[in-house]
Amino acid sequence: MAKRIVKPVVPDLFLKLLKAKFKGVEVVKEFRFNETRKWRFDYAFPSHKIAIEVDGGVWTGGRHINPAGYINDMEKLNTAASMGWLVLRITTDDRFSRKTYELIKNTLEINAEH
Fold first, then answer.
1. Which domains does the chain have, with CATH numbers?
2. I want to staple 41 with a disulfide (CB 3.0 to 4.6 A). Which of 51, 58, 89, 106 is the partner?
3. Rounded to the nearest 5 degrees, what angle is found at the Cα of 28, between the Cα atoms of 11 and 44?
4. How high is the pLDDT of residue 67?
5. Rounded distance, CA 79 to CA 50, Å?
6. Nearest to 80 by CA among 41, 26, 47
């Protein structure tokens, strides 16, 4: 009988920080916004229709920068835009920068005004 490998659960520090910084606004990890394609956003503020996509591997030839991955991302993000979503794209390095939290804060504030 093969041994089952159990991977440890790693807490999502970015999600914890988003919840701490934007109290009172629901933030969801892996939010499914399209049932037909089963597409998900890395993180979303569903009530504001604001999503955050974290593009990893930008310096190492990751999926988001190869031609097929780029085209697939275009389709996903264009579909999201046509559904009224505003998608912020950041890199893995940006997750813990002050500029990222300022961008999210400003976007939530502007969105709340409309």
1. 26-113 (3.40.960.10)
2. 51
3. 120
4. 75
5. 14
6. 41
